[in-house]
Amino acid sequence: MAFNETGHYKNVANLNLLIGYITSYGAQYAPSKDAIKLVNLQDLYQSASLQITTVQDAKNNYSQKVDNREDVFKNIKKFTTRIVANLSGTNVTEQTIKDAKTINAKIQASKAKKPNTSNPDNLDPTATSHSTSRQSYDSLYENFNDMVSLLNFAPGYDTTQNEFLTTELANYATKLRNANDEINNAVVLVTNKRIERNNLLYAPTTGLVDTALDAKKYIKGYFGATSQQFKAINSINFKNTK
């Protein structure tokens, strides 16, 4: 599915332009079909405009959640390395240190990358690149949570530094998980809002595009194909772009 939003907005804007011409016809424009009556076209335009805004809001929310996740995860590699170094000052066993180093190596090897959200019109949170990024951040969380579990049950883990207490480490792990969950929720929101918009704009027969095309056909039939009225609106295009 294409995710460039320009085509969707253009269809809605063109409906508004068409409505302007129809309004100028006054009583001459009097179709019997309810869907293309002026008042219903105006309602359709208002609903479609709201859908465009709702999708944009959902995309902006997604972008904000991506930035938030970047902030939460930005120090995870350095922090985990410090956790492992701190173990030498506790009474844990050599095996615990070895296990912690193994977990840290997994975290250091992770190549989590922020999805490109620089162009909100092309934002596609369902793309393969996003899926790969999500899996990488999920892996970071899972490995860090594994570290927390290891230290929580490790005999001799008696650190005196507050930031390395298991309660504090668990809190940080929760922040990591929540940041990932917020991204997932934002993706669902964008996807669902796009589905709602597409249903309104592109549903066969009842969607904005087909309705607007019916209105153009009515104008052609009423005024004639060579009329100035039809020539004025004939170049107003409506396309199924979903």
What does this structure look like?
With 242 residues, the chain is an all-alpha fold. Helices cover 70% and strands 0% of the residues. It contains 8 helices and no strands. It has helices spanning 6-25, 38-73, 76-86, 94-109, 128-153, 166-202, 208-223, 228-234. Helix 3 (76-86) runs antiparallel to helix 4.
Write the layout of secondary structure elements.
Blueprint: H1 6-25, H2 38-73, H3 76-86, H4 94-109, H5 128-153, H6 166-202, H7 208-223, H8 228-234
Care to give the gist of this entry?
It contains 8 helices and no strands. It has helices at 6-25, 38-73, 76-86, 94-109, 128-153, 166-202, 208-223, 228-234.
Through-space gap between termini = 7 Å
Indicate the overall shape. Answer: rod-shaped
What is the quaternary state of this protein? single chain
Strand content: under 5%
Total beta strand runs: 0
Q: Give the biggest beta sheet.
A: none
* Helicity level: 55-70%
N-to-C SSE string, H for helix and E for strand: HHHHHHHH
Sheet/helix structural class: mainly alpha
Mean pLDDT: 92
**Helix count, DSSP H or I runs of 4 or more residues:** 8
Radius of gyration: 28 Å
**What ranges have pLDDT less than 50 throughout 5 or more consecutive residues?**
none
